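Rotation project, supervised by the postdoc (A.L.). Task for the rotation student: set up a whole-complex structure prediction and record inputs and outputs verbatim in this book. Inputs entered:
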Amino acid sequence: FPVGPEAEDEGQTLNLVETYLQNFYNLQIDHHPHVRQRSKNHLVEKLKEMQEFFGLQVTGKPDLETLEMMNKPRCGVPDVQQYM
Amino acid sequence: FTPGNPKWKRNNLTYRIVNYTRKMRQTDVDEAIEKALNVWSSVTPLTFQKTEDKDADIVISFAYRDHQDNSPFDGPNGQLAHAFQPGEGIGGDVHLDEEEAWSKDARGYNLFIVVAHELGHSLGLSHSNDPGALMYPTYAYTDPNEFILPQDDIDGIQAIYGQINAAVQPTGPKTPQACDPNLTFDAITTLRGELMFFKGRYMLRKHPERAETELNFISLFWPKLPSGIQAAYENVEKDEVLLFKEDKYWVIRGYDIPHGYPKPIYRLGFPKTVKRVNAAYSDETTGKTYFFVADRYWRYDENKKSMDQGYPRKIVHDFGKIGRVDAAFQTDGYVYFFHGTTQFQFDPRSKRIVSQRKSISWFNC
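Outputs recorded:
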């Protein structure tokens, strides 16, 4: 079936969040189905780390303020990790 | 700090500019980079010498998408630039995304601000979570002519390279904390039902229905406004806010500053002896605006657009012992005067001070 707009949005949001956390919070992603739950927990932990860094409410969810911050133009150097 | 505490082993460093962006004149790029280097050399023993040698310590270049350093750029906006910590080879180098709208002013992305940030990485700093720091990860415009390296960044870089050899050490602006009991304000105004507290280059924004206080740079909303606003008031009927600094004032309507501002305050009827306004508030029920200057105040009629006769008058005569006024605003029928960390609630009907409280009482601390 054609992907509904909200599902499409959800996919885009997840993609934005994953890419941001990979780039700046060293999120490692493993797409194998059997480790999906662990990956999801890992993503939530990294999301909390990002929210903590920016002084946002630490919800572990991609809420509006968190997405706003992720969309801001910024430096490409990670926030938590050595950059070599 | 960057894990492993990387730093340059010597203080006299070299830098090379490999190429230029087509978005700016070459001389403007050179000037922006030189000014950015000076941000750091003026607070540490570091010196920067420009060279054409291939093995310069800090190599600055504009790059496009995948530029062979395992960190491809992402096109306009998003990631603006990156830099590498001190070290051989790519260490210390600064890469700027060629696809960004680089500028020497408030348009697009100001090259000076971004390069100054990236050079912090080149010298060994990582990101700061102080929203006012230069090393904060997200971009925020500051007029290069007004830029002063924040204290957070000075502390960071001096912890790596030490202080300058001078009797007086440079200091920088500290980011206001809404619940700092010593917080004082430059100016305060209502704005469309919200409260705006001005402090240095910052503005604390408080919406009556929201618990938290939002901290922003003034330049985020009004890039053309200077920092250090000294007085402000809202003309609710005209949906305007007037902001004052030294002998000038600006009108803002939402995000816009109409053409022709700033104007001299003497247009409002002040005598030339007045050099600045300390505070102002406007009473929308009477159409009268009150301007506070040292120990006196003027009353201005918004309808007649002129000062009322019989002014200035002594503040103490009509408002009681509130001393010099730093900031003032009116809401819910009361006037709130701020003097240092003290706030007076004044009832214009009974013409009396009805309560006194801390200046930060509006921030749910």
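Student's summary: Residues 288 and 301 of chain B are 5 Å apart (CA to CA).
Supervisor addendum: The first strand of chain B starts at residue 12 and ends at 17.
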